[in-house]
Amino acid sequence: MADPIPSPMRAMALSRLAGFVPSAGQAYAAGRNTDPGPDEPAAVSALSAYVRYRLIAEQEIVADVLARHSLERAAKFVQEVLWRTYWKGWLEMRPAVWTRFLAERDRQHDGFSDTGAIAAAEAGQTGIDGFDDWARELVATGYLHNHARMWFASIWIFTLRLPWALGADFFLRHLTDADAASNTLSWRWVAGLQTPGKTYLATTENIARYTNGRFAPTGLAREAIALREPPADAPRALPEPVPYDARQPSLLLVTSEDMHTESVFLGTATFKAARVASGGALLWGDNARRFVRAATADTVSRIAAHFDCPVDLTAILDAQTLIAAAQGAGVRQIVTPYAPVGPIAGALAPLVSELAGQGIVLTQIRRDWDRRFWPHATKGFFAFKDRIPAILRECGLA
Ligand SMILES: Cc1cc2nc3c(=O)[nH]c(=O)nc-3n(C[C@H](O)[C@H](O)[C@H](O)COP(=O)(O)OP(=O)(O)OC[C@H]3O[C@@H](n4cnc5c(N)ncnc54)[C@H](O)[C@@H]3O)c2cc1C
User: How many structural domains compose the chain?
Assistant: First the structure.
């Protein structure tokens, strides 16, 4: 989809995708597990930060890839994109897993006595080949290859025997693509909490092979015994957003959960005004904040041109700000792309009743992609994966 006005961040995402598409088939499948190092070209797309904040949407990525490759040839890449969709849907039905992680993180933060071991691990001073390099690479670049994330989490939990929730928190504070669902559930998966009893063990041979021999750490744990936790609550039904009345004049609210609002409101949506929330305090770390700051500037100009309405920035997502913005625009409806489980959803939830007290409705719009895929994230990924071809056909993509 071509954009009508220059927008550097979105343009970067589209150009990265265009550069990647030719190798999304066999080349990706064969090379995706190799982490050649931060300065070498890798087989992966490096699109994750753009997808995380939805400057580019999963549907666009899959559409472009399938315009060039058959689903069979690009199956591995399409499945990886859908891991993200799956994690988001899975957590949406189990929000207590997120709140339990936050509580566990705070408990370990206050109670774990070996703070020196945590500091050494975060500073890359454990003496473990590779692990120390990934800790420094993460802080410096805001990115780690997927395989490095798996090795790092495994060594953190099973070799260093550090609390998993503090490792997940370290990732959240430094990843540019830091995401409540993908990060928490991947750490849980490595630890044996997500698929009970099934853990991920990093080995010297695997690391040496898939880092092209750059690292061959010794002294790694030889077994990975699954961590345990009390049983989780039963999954809830996916929350049904308040219906959106397109005839009512509205204020558009854009958050860092979904910044390409133009592809959420296709057709005839008209807005009296828009607010883009920069969300600084709701992001975990400087790498993410820097990225979202640039994306916010980009989004303000795109939205103003696309929806032809005045757009302001807001630093804080509170009821007073939104009430003043809605009243200033003379509207009683605020519309925003759906915020999945995470800090933005956590900030919006308590505003609903305060806004209602002023006669203002907050409506969240779920993307068609999420609406179709999320209900299938009830069990493991393999059951979900079986549904992919049929749902892509429903979306007109395969
Ligand atoms: C311990 C751990 C923590 C992680 N934390 C995050 C996180 O906070 N945010 C995040 O976006 N991803 C996270 N991931 C998933 C994955 O590592 C990154 O999405 C991927 O490395 C991004 O690189 P890429 O864009 O080159 O991926 P590609 O291989 O090119 O994949 C394309 C897109 O698919 C999605 N994707 C690919 N693999 C996965 C996966 N395993 N899980 C979920 N989505 C995937 C991403 O959106 C990615 O941009 C984590 C993985 C692990 C093991």
Answer: 3
